[in-house]
Design goal:
16% strand; IolE/XylAMocC-like; globular; 11 helices; Xyl_isomerase-like_TIM-brl; 2-keto-myo-inositol dehydratase; Xyl_isomerase-like_sf; TIM Barrel; alpha/beta
């Protein structure tokens, strides 16, 4: 059997999301100590911070807890509503600066930005139209450029925007419009393979088309049969996850081997962080899945 080509530019990690963590505090989620213990046990060296407040927010304590387990942090995550215009900048910056300061303090170099949802991910309530106006697109793109500049100047972090189901940056058309309307020197993309497939996109084609804009990867897969039901029934993202729309690799789409190979060909170092959407889940469920996923990624050369 031929050995896979080593993907020596891909740095694999995992995230609290793969342990069913979506919120800073929720009784259905595993305690943060267990997450840190198990993510290392599963074979990962890199983690993300997850929702701000889940892991300790004191930089000294977080640094100590992470280092004690031989782990390193790749990124923090923030949520923004920049399409609403500059009136909300102060509120956005207060949230971003809090997360960015902790992210920088623990030695990470990226800040993942997720746009706000147009549909409530629990109740399916339509919060805003799914399509932005021309003015809102201008607010979104200029706001992200401003955020990228400010985050780099203040914290030395690189901004990567995460296309996400039920947000305004989701489909191939929306992602292309966003990238074509923003400056690569200020903002790039966190390509989430699962969300992009969920919204009908082709991750390999995106990497090959916009390679210079791919600054970070999230790895997950979609069950195409469940996805077809979700789309047909108009199910929002949260309940779709509970139906199992995001499935354990390598049982879904896209194939992760070709995605990782396309990323390797870019010739730059990239984080590839596993995000196995599992909220809510039984506390004993994540570790076996994470362990098998790490074994699978090694079989791909990562």
């Amino acid at each position: 059997m031929d050995r896979p080509t080593p993907l020596d530019r891909i740095r694999v990690g995992s995230a609290p999301d793969s342990w069913g963590v979506w919120f800073p505090d929720d009784p259905r989620q595993v305690p943060w100590e267990r997450f840190l213990d198990e993510v290392r046990q599963a074979g990962y060296e890199w983690i993300e911070l997850g929702p701000y407040g889940y892991l300790p927010t004191d930089p000294a304590r977080l640094t100590e807890e992470v280092a004690a387990r031989g782990l390193k942090v790749s990124a923090g995550t923030v949520f923004t509503s920049l399409h609403r215009g500059p009136a909300g900048w102060e509120e956005t910056w207060a949230h971003v600066s809090q997360v960015a300061a902790l992210t920088r303090a623990v030695g990470a170099g990226h800040l993942v930005v997720i746009p706000s949802f147009w549909r409530d991910d629990r109740t399916a309530e339509i919060l805003e139209p799914p399509e932005l106006t021309t003015e809102q697109w201008a607010h979104l793109t200029k706001g992200m450029e401003r955020l990228g500049h400010e985050v780099r100047e203040a914290y030395g972090l690189e901004l990567v925007v995460h296309p996400h189901a039920d947000t305004h940056i989701d489909t191939e058309a929306h992602v292309g419009r966003f990238l074509d309307s923003t400056d690569s020197a200020l903002v790039n993309l966190c390509l989430d393979t699962g969300h992009y497939a969920y919204c009908g996109g082709d991750s390999v084609r995106l990497i090959e088309t916009y390679g210079e804009r791919i600054g970070y990867l999230h790895l997950k897969q979609v069950d195409p049969d469940v996805l077809a039901e979700v789309v047909a029934d108009g199910v929002p993202f949260g309940p779709a996850v509970q139906r199992g729309v995001m499935c354990e690799p390598p049982t879904g789409v896209p194939e992760l081997g070709p995605v990782l190979e396309a990323a390797q060909k870019l010739g730059v170092e990239l984080f590839a962080i596993v995000e196995q959407d599992m909220y809510p889940c039984e506390p004993d469920a994540p570790l076996p899945v994470a362990t098998r996923t790490r074994r699978f990624l090694r079989s791909c050369g990562a």
